[in-house]
Please model this.
Amino acid sequence: MLKIVVCVSGGGTNLQAIIDGVADGSIRNTKIAGVICNNAGAYALKRAENSGIPAFCISPKSFGSRTEFNDAFLQKLDELNPDLIVLAGFLVILPEKMIERYRDRIINIHPSLIPSFCGTGYYGLKVHEAALSRGVKVTGATVHYVDEGTDTGRIIAQKAVEVLEGDTPEILQRRVMEQAEWKILPEAIDKIAAEHE
Ligand code: GAR
Model:
């Protein structure tokens, strides 16, 4: 059984896709041990609670320094003792210690076809704004392992999505989620779980 912890910051639609995948059996051999969120107002926390998954809010605002926040975050992760950490819209720079400790055991979903529209400053709607202003006709999503760089880790899965005439960043974001993110992230977890004894 692959024990996962999902880290979130916002609406949590990718978290929901994981919860649903575990419930309907399309993600096999996997248990969600907990959800960690850095933002007390995030709807993602509600989604976890609604599904009876232990949810923890660890916000930088509750700590005097970044180091204290990082330590509290890492301590919670260690307590939950996951085989895999899934960053599902988690908009926090990870402490280096965490990347070292969980090397090859952290994956992230990014809403573009890496190496386009990724790296520092490219997150959430900003990614789709950049794709539209560049005028690309195809975008998509990528699941990748996390290393010390921003969106530089080994790619696990990608799926292309068409950009259509008249798209706004919000419309494009929704299409990329529906057609790519909510599929390839659960599929990647299922695949990793299958390889995990
Ligand atoms: C998703 O589109 C995810 O790919 C993106 O944030 C959104 C979170 O939505 N992540 C990044 O931009 C990471 N660089 P959600 O909270 O509804 O899953």
Remarks:
- Strands lie at 2-8, 30-37, 55-57, 84-87, 106-110, 138-145, 155-162.
